């Protein structure tokens, strides 16, 4: 039986827009499992990113709760949520947000030193991760503006992993990349998932979605359905057909 990593109970999120209450998430009961590559899909405005932010403690629900292990993180203070995210979560966004005035290595260490004060050990681990994503030792001395988009996003993944998070959250991580560099980033996420890293990714792209073993489809703030694709295999035609049929059924 899979280990439950995170769960929600009656998770709801509402926003006020010019005096009108908009219900973005509606009573979502959900369990996420350790080691899964979970993909969240849905049309624009379905609540995908809002759900990811609520799951990760970047935002708090209006109603319901989010539980990580035995801790109800939705009850934490803003400072408590910041500590939770720092220790347990990694984040990869469409925009990479590397700090321009810092080298690649220093960008990574700036995150790692918030949790681990052993700089020597952090540098060694960062080098191992960078090697795993094909960033050379020479490139590690460069600044973000000197990298390609794909290289920068792979550095962003290393920065997200430097504190060994239980969950890596990715919000449209290939959205700003061309086809080739996007594929490199997907390969990187897949590699770490195969090594046991739990991943939760929001995407509107079928090619990206095929990397997941579990697909959740949101519509109007609710989970309309889900699809089990099993572990990713390259050039798996049956996988593509199964996902296509599922998305058609969901009204994609």
In summary, what is this structure?
With 252 residues, the chain is α/β, with parallel strands linked by helices.
Structure description:
There is one protein chain. The radius of gyration is 18 Å and the shape is globular. It has 252 residues and is an alpha/beta fold. Helix 3 packs across helix 4 and helix 3 runs parallel beside helix 5. 39% of the residues are buried. It is built from 8 helices and 10 strands. A 6-stranded mixed β-sheet has the order 6-7-8-3-9-10, sandwiched between helices. A hairpin with a 2-residue loop joins strand 9 and strand 10 (222-228). It has one domain (4-250): P-loop containing nucleotide triphosphate hydrolases (Rossmann fold), CATH 3.40.50. Helix content is 36%, strand content 28%. The longest helix is centred in the last third of the chain and has 16 residues, at 179-194. It starts with a strand and ends with a helix.
